[in-house]
Write a structure and sequence with these properties.
By secondary structure, the protein is an alpha/beta fold. It has helices at 12-30, 53-64, 85-95, 106-115, 130-142, 159-171, 187-200, 210-214, 234-240, 248-253, 274-279, 281-306; strands at residues 42-47, 68-73, 98-102, 120-122, 150-154, 174-178, 203-207, 219-222, 259-262. Bound molecules: phosphoric acid mono(formamide)ester and norvaline.
Length: 307
């Protein structure tokens, strides 16, 4: 049995196999064919933070696969009133076939997984958002920009940055990260990524100059400057991230056919300009749609691992 907590624990072949499976299920769906491989199975979804895409994609995906999804907000279950994670894990995993969790500390999901009898999927923690990267890479394949990709990530060193680092390090593409001073990625995550990069041939560069990072990049991406849980820092961050908005001038420095990706929700006028988001709306909303297809691939893949 496998959990899906970070891309660290997956090989390049496994990551591509999951995305391929998602693409196949997507193609079948578009042709009107449903894959009902998870019939009679139940996915428990524990949310300790807000969500639009993650909730809708997992719930819809599980339904389309013939199964059922349970939305469990921490306001409603006893976890939010102090029932231990390890007890919650043992109860839920005796009844459900898979568990998706969106929470704060990554250690919570690790503890849950350690006590779970069924696969646990990370639906975002403060440290990683790996399901988003499955959808992002699927979108890069579909738009023909996965080969020889040079990705520039501009903005906060957060869960998305850590996840891009792991994807690049495992798959072997070039990733340049530009963050303001004081908002760099965690050194332990960077160290892990650089270790994996030795094997995959990935080129990973971290810097504080966004213009240098985007120069010639084939993909430019960013994320909110204040993640969930950092709402109080928002005003301060807006000041400190000056010069880091992905706008027309910044995109001009990238490759002339460069694509823009954003995991959403986007804050126009902060990490991205209205003009850039709207002119790349086709790929950005395909990226959002691909959450559904990529995660269906993931759920089927994890279920098959259990035999
Ligand atoms: N990108 C993403 O995970 O969106 P939600 O927060 O809406 O789930
Ligand atoms: N970094 C953002 C991602 C949202 C999908 C957050 O954690 O809020």
């Amino acid at each position: 049995m496998r959990h899906f907590l970070t891309l660290k624990d997956f090989t390049k072949e496994e990551i591509l196999e999951i995305i391929d499976l998602g693409l196949k299920i997507k193609k079948d769906l578009k042709a009107g064919k449903y894959n009902a491989e998870l019939e009679h199975k139940t996915l428990a979804m524990i949310f300790e933070k807000s969500s639009t895409r993650t909730r809708v994609s997992f719930e819809t995906g599980m339904f389309q696969l013939g199964g059922h999804a349970l939305f469990l907000s921490n306001r409603d279950i006893h976890l939010g009133r102090g029932e231990p994670v390890k007890d919650t894990a043992r109860v839920i995993s005796r009844m459900c076939d898979m568990v998706m969790i969106r929470t704060f500390e990554h250690s919570m999901i690790e503890e849950f997984a350690a006590y779970s009898k069924v696969p646990v999927v990370n639906g975002l923690t403060d440290s990683y958002h790996p399901v988003q990267l499955l959808a992002d890479y699927m979108t890069m394949i579909e738009y023909g920009v996965a080969e020889n990709a040079v990705v520039a990530y501009i903005g906060d060193g957060n869960n998305m940055t850590n996840s891009w680092l792991m994807l690049a390090a495992k798959l072997g593409f070039e990733l340049r990260i530009a963050t303001p001073k004081g908002y760099e990625v965690e050194s332990t995550v960077l160290r892990d990524a650089l270790d994996f990069a030795k094997e995959s041939g990935a080129v990973i560069k971290v810097m504080n100059d966004p213009k240098e990072a985007v120069k010639g990049a084939t993909i430019v991406t960013t994320d909110t400057w204040a993640s969930m849980g950092q709402e109080d820092e928002k005003e301060q961050r807006i000041k400190e991230f000056e010069g880091f908005m992905v706008d027309g001038l910044m995109m001009c420095l990238a490759d002339k056919d460069a694509k823009f990706l954003h995991c959403l929700p986007a804050y126009r006028g902060q990490e991205v300009s209205e003009e850039i988001l709207e002119s790349h709306a086709d790929i950005v909303f395909s990226e959002a749609e691909n959450r559904l297809h990529a995660q269906k691939g993931l759920m089927v893949w994890l279920d098959r691992q259990r035999g």
